[in-house]
User: Fold these one by one.
Assistant:
Number 1:
Amino acid sequence: MDQRRKRTWGLLFCDHCEEYVSKSTFYRHREMNMSRPFAKRFVESSSEDEQQQNMSRPFAKRFVESSSEDEQQHQQQKMRRFQRIEESSEDEQQPQQHKMTRSLHSSSTEISSQDEQVTRIPPCSSTENSSEDEQFSEDQEVWSENEDRENPEETGGCEPHAIITFLLLLLAKWKSFFTVSDRAFESVLKIFRILFNVLSSTFIFTPALQNIAAHFPATLYMFKKAISVNGNDFTSFVVCPKCHSVYTLDEAVMLKHDASGKVIQKKSTKCCHISFPRHPQKRFRKKCDTVLMKSVIGKDEKEFLYPKRKFCYRSLIKSISDLLKRPGFKESCEKWRQRNVKEGIYADIFDGQVWKNFQVYEGKPFLQEVGNLGFMLNVDWFQPYKYVNDSVGVMYLALMNLPREERFKKDNIIVVGVIPGPHEPKEHINGFLEPLVSDLKHLWAGLDIDGQFVRGALLSLASDIPAARKTGGFLGHMANMGCSKCLKKFPRTEDNKVDYSGFDDTWPVRSNTDHCRYARDAKRAKNKASKSKIEGKYGARYSCLQELPYFDVVRMHVIDPMHNLLEGTAKRVMQES
């Protein structure tokens, strides 16, 4: 048993007194950090006054602080101290290591506190902005995406270093494999930063540790910058938590100026959406009036306005530009032209009528021209947390020009939008589709992307049944006109279940022209009753995708095979019929 933990008549061995003492004295000396210092065990030639002075100073501080006049002499002294460690007997090695560990533990607390003071950098702002911040009231400061970023000039930046880069890449792989949250990962970075600071302060004769400690990132922003990872290039929109209307950040903030034009106040605006602007009664033409921003506490205990719901959208044109820069990607998009498939065999989407009809559209070549692209849209919701019933939606596109074995790989999927939770929109997602429809209109007209003229079109909407109804502009499958392909009516049974029987009858097929006309009529309805009547009679609801001049929302939407076949949606409908 270790001598320090050996009990003799209820006593404990004290390193400071070098004898057995009472428990109260032992713990009092340990709390006062009066344990025998590291230097006293090895430097026997120093005077008693010097030993007393060293006992009152932490281990790391004794090695860091050295005068400039006798710096070389001090370094040689330290080297001799460490040489004496190796020459010491085996009986002394175990207590020496224990004391050294306890001394390092006490010094790491001081170094971590010093490190926090050095790396805590206030947000960058001009003199004018700082004067404005002092005049803001409780909820008058606006959130900025650069608020949590560290100033690289004041922290020394992250210069290229082979050891740092290798270690950061390992940490990035670990974060991706175990799906570690950003907040937890940033804490790991700070722990490594403190560890390197302690080691560099302790073993001062190793310049490599000093270099690593000086340039190791302590924030997620500096970590991404060190490994040359592109930043978040998603555009943030503010979403009304009540009606799901979408606004830009500038539209969600109201500025008040003084006589000289200086901003004196910033406040959150309210949602101005009106559900029925043509309602005959004024009291039903009121705005939503839901506050869009909330007050949060940022760095340095400043309050900022942050969106209550935030919709993230990445431009489709930017994504196409990134894909076209990849080597061999353009050639992969043209491999479908060399396919040899027998007539009457449908092996891929290239064998379908939609792809064939878009070879030439309205007398002008589209897919026949090299470089033009066809997309498939998928919208779905998922549960981000295991034990919480929250839903977050994702809108992503697949490039149908690619071969089937490459089309749905993660690197080739284009994520265009993340729909905020915690619940799905009930009837439609038009506010989230508007930026995508705008990009699709520009692509249909043609754009010059990195020196190449590119045209693109949305040729398919493939989702599960609820998402296809909300995206394409149809009623749910439980409605009377629940089919999105025909006008068959599904009556209710006595126990209020949908009767899907009657498959022997012939049903009139939906027409895209009539469907869009009924959807526009429902959109222009004066009140909720007339809108519900039109939607229930024709099974049509307005969707932003109907604004695309070429998109046939009835013909070009399908239920994806995963839900339709693998999860048994078609089987369940046939069994209930």
Number 2:
Amino acid sequence: MNGTSLVGYAILRANFDSGRPNYLDNFLEFAVDAVRISHPVPAAPEAVSSRIEDKFGITIPTLVARNILRRAQRLGRLDEAGNGAFVCSKSEMSTGRSVSADFDKFIRQENQVADRLIDYADASGLAARGTLNREQAAALIGAYMDSHALPLLRNAVQGATPPRRLDPGENYLVSCFVAEAHESDDDLFNRLVEIAKGATLAAVLRMDVSSLQASLKSLTIYFDAPLLIDLLGHHGETAQSASRDLLALARGLGARTAAFSHTVREAKSILAAAQAQLRTGQRVSETFRAAVYFLEGGMSPSDVEIAIQRFDDELDGLGIEEREKPDTYHAYGLDESLLQDNIRKAIHYVNEAALRYDVDSVSAVHRLRQGRPGETLERARTIFVTSNHDLVMAANRSREDAHEYPLALLESTLASLLWVRSPTLADSLPAKKVAATAWAGMQPDPARWSQYLAEVERLEERGSLSRDDAVLLRLSSESKRELMREANGEPDQFAAVPPSKLVELVKESLAEPLREQVKALQAEAQAVADASTSSIAAAQEDATSERETNRVLRERLEAAEAASRSTQVEDRERRVRLWRKAGRDVNRAMIIALWVVGVLTLALGLFPVIAPNIQMELPAPWAAILTIGGGAVIVVGLLTQVVGGSLREWLSALQKPLALWLHTRRLDKLGMTVGHEVEVTAEPELAAAPTS
């Protein structure tokens, strides 16, 4: 791999975007350019392959180069010169346009990306200043994209050339660079995505395939248990989105999707284990993704139980068919003892049942192929897809036929293979993959991280580290990020970062956004203060003027209030006078009425005694009046003896209601209403009156 691979990837991606009718046509321009360089000297496929790798950093197997040259001959761009060598045709030399014409443009683009990596390495301190030149930076980016284009697949394909392996520090540097671009520089990140697309296209070619147009209708893809959990969202939204993109690609290309029955049981057992940890309150390991997801989501054991009960229906809704593993072991059986040994060496299983599940899955895929190896994806018939890197390595080491297509693939590898076949089905997949690869490259190796957490636990037990700090290191994503940053991505340097120091780094990292917010608020407040300073003098003048205005208004208001109080006093005095007058008038009327009633009563009472004969000669009405009057006198006399009191006392109870009625009528005529004068003014007394 050399620096010019970025140029080759860019040109390859441009060819791919132009919609060439055949996959190999994307590499046609490279082959014709290699022949043009030596024209009129014939160029053999071996020389063509070598020139393409030297100039564009793209490795094309000799057999594939021969197929590409023959296709160029059929298109009239090359002529065969004997012994399998080729020269350019006359029409190509006269009218053809060499891909080298765009070489300088792509070189400038490559240099810009390489320079950005150098600047980032210097600014971040991940590489000593001045130690990384442009050629080395371009080579790092090319190697990074190449190694992650189709991870593990070329190791599993017979004769494939393995990519350059970056050391942990280099991988971490480029991962951080890509992640930074993803977060803050869309233009740079889009350039990196285009490089990744070209790397993927070139990686597929190294598998020695001749076409990617064959149908996948005969292919069945079996999902591993963690991927089933991803699909249902129990590992978080990010994992669900990536797995569903893969599912959509597979189904869009006609492939069938399924899961073995034992894999479904395994997935449910994983959820059940997470449920048990929630129920018992055990410490949740941060590597137990499902348990961490449920815990952080605030879910209860009953919520997990519902997820388990719905598992089958939700898989069916996604179009994933549950199938039993085949029983044709003796006819097409794989050496399961070898397979189990290989897997056990590669993976440390806490649960022995998980080992059995993986052996059953890989062996079942081999048996479903019925002894037909199939050297391409469409001819493989079945494939097991997983997110377990070590399982893929162990499974493919156990194949009986070296030419057999891999039994297992990483989900990212399969997604890339499917995307090359039909990029329009998942246009955002390369960008998601680049971002996910960068994020993964910034995480510590799981085994080394577990060792580090074991040291954290020992310190906690000895009391050298508080429980809160230990929890922070175990569960905070910042702890991984800070450890990798402090160790420059080198696992061997983890021991040089004591947990106590890491705690401080994590706290500092968590506090940094808050400090930035405080700074922003302070800057905003200062800006407001600066803006207000210029208007203080004017505001003071306005305040002085306003104070003078307020003084004048206050004086006017005080005068108005004094006048109002005077008016209110006069009004109240007038009301009191009217109320007292009403009382006197009622009192006077009641006294007169009492005297009149008393005189009449006395007269009526004495009249029958003084002149009894006269009463007999009076007309009937008058006689009745005299009789009634006499009876009234007798009744009043009896009431005063029985009930007590006097007629004067009885009438005095009517004084205030009558006075209020009279007072109200007089106020109505004056347009006034009754106020508090009725309550605060004493009732007028009745003058002496005759008692009955």
Number 3:
Amino acid sequence: MTVPVIKIKVLPKPVIKGKMDVRFPANVATTNFLTVTKSNGTYTFGVDYTLLGEFTQLNPATAKVAFYDAAQSTYSIISVANLFTSSLDVDLQAIAALTGTGLLARTASGIWALRSLTAPAAGFTITNPDGVAGNPTFALANDLAAVEGLSGTGIARRTGADAWSVGTAVANAELATMANNTFKGNVSGSTAVPADLTPAQVTAALPVATASAKGLAPQLPNNATLYLDGTGNFTSPSSGGNLSPEERAYWVGLAAMLDPAAYVLYTGKFSLTVPAGETLYVLNAWSAVIAGGTSSWFHRDLAASEAFEVSAGTTISWDGISNTAFLYVCRPALVSGDSKYADPKALYFQRLNTLRSIALSQLAASVASGSAPGTLVRTQFPTDFSDGIFAQVSVMDAPWCILADALLWGVSNTTNEISDVHQYRITKTLMTAFVRETMPYIEVQSANVSGNGTDVSTFTSRGVMAYYKLPGTWRATPTRAYKAAVLADSPSRYFTFDELSIGTGTAPNLGSAASADATYVGTLGYAMGGATGDGSTSVAMNSTDDYISLPSSTDWNLAGSDFTFEFWVRFDSLPTPSASSDPWLVNGWVTSNGDTDNSFLVTVQNNKITLLVKYADATTGTVSSTISLATDTFYHVIVGRSGSTLFVRVVGKETRQTVAVSKNLITRNSKLTMLGNSFAGGASPGSFRLTGRLDEFAFYKSALSDARADAHHAATLGWV
């Protein structure tokens, strides 16, 4: 029989309708994923989704998907492409619609375009401008590449296509041409581009160019007369530009003796050799020897006009007799490089003329008639100035009038004398500069007619000092060679102790560490003669509560790192030599009551500078100098660690002393470091204090080499 064909139409409803011409018994079959079942004479058609095949590729534009719309109770079909794009953000749809390659650029809301970077015609190139093959890369080219490749300094010049050079002087041929007999300038009366000026215009602007003036310019303020020198500058016929080297040296010396920044005060066991190319002017010397002599030398006259000139190569030192020897010298080399000294002759007369407008001040000290022999009276200068010039001293029925420092040591005579007790009458013009804080007192002692040390004073003994208080702009800026040498080695902490007043309580850190200023504690003496021979000062510690505090820092946790402490120290007194640590100079051991983080200590043991350290395993290590210490002289000390050795050295007196080390130091737990004092179980410092002076303290987070320490030492003058 003929197999009937059933046509099925799928309507947009869950119903399958069919028209069949069936005669039973019949054979009903389906194809693809349709199914038919018969039960109790009823044929049931359905869909078997398991019969659907899996595809590996489709065209999203032609592939369709059927969806049931619950709201309409209908089925709908939609292409796969529209299915995934119709619900996306408009920007994403715009991106999806793009074709081609390049960098994306959003030109408006829902609008995107492909872009590519374009290099200029010259200057730089772009690799991968559209980003397809990799990141776009820019590189300088042509002239820009040539300029970027230059080294050195100077004016950059284009010497050819894509070629540049630097530092080459501009040749005259490269300058713009000028009309004959003209000058470049501007005489328009306002700011303007330079133009060619005629001789008439130049003459009108600069009277010095007139023929009648013959090179001079008489119409200047204060009736000054200048001439056009060989360098193209207008200078005075008697100015620095017209002085011979010999004349300049002479006038620099005179001007420097009126400059407090040019003076150096030595006290104690000094020894110096005048450097090559320098001349020193001795204003005062007491208990010294000169030029290798053996007899004590005294130059008591403080007057600048009586200064004793000492040439290069001459040695001046204490006489080996009196520890209170002193030397007050003017060292012009400290200030001659300052711009104030461009014309030293003019500067000298300018300073003398300025003194005419400064009121004289006076300070007096007197001892009453009938006072016991040796009675001394001391008077302090007022503290409303720092720099001054001694104008005149008057001694009336006294043996002398001398100057004293902050420790009340006599550090300078003012005039000659007969004896320490013989009354004397003299008036002396001085005109010698000084720093008040360095010489803050005058002293007068009782005297008698007979000159007998047992007699009472015959008359009232008086000393009177007339002086000028100088303005702050008077002094030059001195050269500090030692300071420059230390800073060249990048210390973490560096304190010069040049403060003229401890009233601020702070020593600024000149090293690299931030927030690391030191604090003065106690009653330190300030503005004491320094170690470097350049007019800088030191601080003195002479009471039980004096010390300098370096703030708490992790830098004091030295562990196994290299480090160096560098400083200058002078002892006014020393304990009897013993194995005990006394005094303590650099204290990272005990800095507060109960401090047990004992890490490092620079001290004196058996009269020698010693570095003591404690390791993390509680064992200790020491290394000592070979130099036996004395009082009243400065020592230049370096101590520290360099790799596998601890070291100590008194620079200029010995080679480096070392011991092996392979352990880490115990941590300080960021505690402070103390200079010049100790805590030892009590509530206040003082057990192992320094009686003396400290100067130029530096801490390096590295091992300072002997060569650099020697370079620092060579930048000083006065201590060997």
Number 4:
Amino acid sequence: MPLVLKTIILSFCLSLFTLGANATEYSVFVKNNLKGLVDNEGNEIIPAEYDDIGWSRGSTHVVGRVIGYRKRNNWGLISTKNEKLTRAIYSYLVPFDKQLIIAGIRKDGTNRSTYFLINESGKPVSKQRYDYLAAAGNRLIAANNRGRGQLFGLVDAKQRTLISLQFSDISYLGASRYAVTTQPNAVALYDADGNDLTGPSFQFINPFDGTLAEAAKDGKLGQIDTGGNIVIPFAYRRMKPGENTGMPFPEWKLLTGQNELLATVKYDSVIPAGKNLYRARSLKGELIMNGSGKALTDYCSCHIASVYPEYALVRRDDKYGLLDREGTWVLPPSYDSLIVGKDFYLASSTTATRLTQWHMLDESGKELSEYGYQTMIYSESGLIPVKRRNLWGYIDRKGKEVIPAIYQKVEPYRFDMAVVDYMGAQGVIDRDGEWVISPKEGRVDILSENRFLVKTRWGNHICDRHRRPVYETEQQLSPFDSLHLLATTDEGKVGLLDFSGNMVLSTMYDAVSPLMQDTVYIFDKGEKRGLLSKSGKVMIPIENEFEEFHDMHDDFFGVRIGGKYGFVDVNGDLRIANRYDSIGHFTEGMAPIKLLGRWGYVDKIERLLVQPLYDEAYPFHDGMAIIKMKGKYGMINKEGDRVIEAKYDEIHRGPSGRIVVRLGDRYGLFSSSGETLIIPKYEKITDLPGEYVIIRRHGKYGVTTKAGRSTIPPIYDTITYDDINEIFLAVTEPEWENLPNQEGE
């Protein structure tokens, strides 16, 4: 047989597609990139004239006596006798059962479709139309668009409503059961006739495996049967039903440093959130509890956003409210946004027409503002910027609109003045709404009570309250700090000038630092650095002898001159001679210096207080410094005495100031003055503020006093310190256990 003919036959055979349950009857074939249908004897039933044969979701089985065909992105129905039953008018065709088909038709002028059931002849089952329709067992899940989302329900094959279209979600679980979400974290079990079997009792229900389904309630897993009855109690973090095992939640104990038990709870995690407040998480949600383990909220999607002395700002299911320490809602969680002021709140809600509206509330939640606003911006300056009818104004702390909403844009008050945009121009008003600087073209910045920066397309200038020019320039000016403006040339060079327009640093430098230690600025040009006083006097010019110029520490700057290091003061005077190979920085009046390959310390009058004996030397803290000698670490005092011998592999200060050391694989503890508190005997030591440390021994965690006396025995898998409430959270991790049987045994 010729090779070409073999290739054609092979290509034809490869283009035959099996049609599901009707595999012995029909197959799709391809010819000239078009598709048709043949029977199991190879007879052409439907000629290859269509872009596709089958259904929208890719299947190709025949339903009764019909199958779908596609032309130009639309679908129609054709019989196995090559009779077109409908024109290609559908955007979507998918079989529902052996007689009915889910059809979609595009809405006029949109890419969205409306869905319904048709029979084999293309006749609609009913006049009912939906925005979503999908098979779910022998029923269909339907939905219609509502606002920004959809509301779901359940219908039968005659499109009769079994569950009304009012729920946020419905999913098919198998076994003729459905999970219906009534609100976030509230799911009910329904049967195929639309009967509610359980009410909104669960967070979620997974598909049935036979007659049982895994479900979650109050953050814990269990199992239910098809009637919604509890078969395995809700007590587990994870489950392996096939192995009949489950893993409980970790046990958390809230303990004082003296091992006094405050609470025992079981959650995935417990996170301190404020004074006597905790976030307790399990599975996909959380609740808020107090330090006694009492739940202050039900289990939901809760999050503590901020904590205040008397209450917490809480987000619950994407809404905000205020919760007090006893679990009472001061303000219900019903606001889209909530800002807490000193004696008022700013709150936004969504209206029935889906518009956002802001109000000022008093401490009881009563509306103070006379209008609903599009936006409110919290400000510490006294008056609150508000937006109404797309224009801005200000309200006072009582909600009264004291400056009418007539401006296109406003800024918070500063020096009892505010920058506003009015009629396309910008000016400055006082607290009574009177013009301090009338609106003009350009941008205005308030610098002080009597100085303003005005930027226009012609240049920048400083003026007073009467708009009298004080200084003008074509350079770019921008506020730098409370004393100066930053001037920038077109080439990117910068300098400083004061609010009276006096140039204190010419615009020839690459960068200027913030004010350091409220004393000086450092300015850079290339690799060189200079020094400018707070008052604007150049203390060290950029043309100097320094090859390196370090940042300021303890009023001294490290410098390199002629390849050697020393220190200068704020006047640029050399206070420590440039005789050293390397230096650290000054703390507590002493600085590390390196001489002849070894490190020691000098004071501010260059007395060599600690001889250069060490491989490494670090800055002093609380009168002691870490040093390294012959590969081992220790500590010395300011006299150079070794208060902790240099024999440790690791050494660091803890938050209490105590010293944690490691010798081999064991950790010990010294006081801040170098006294031995705990000899190196633990696998780990975590120093804490106050009187306690966390230790690990034989893989378990406990707590001792700083002197090493055990208070919480090392029996826990993890211990963390809650520094807000000054207690310990001790965790015991669970192990897999056998699930109880249906009798609870």
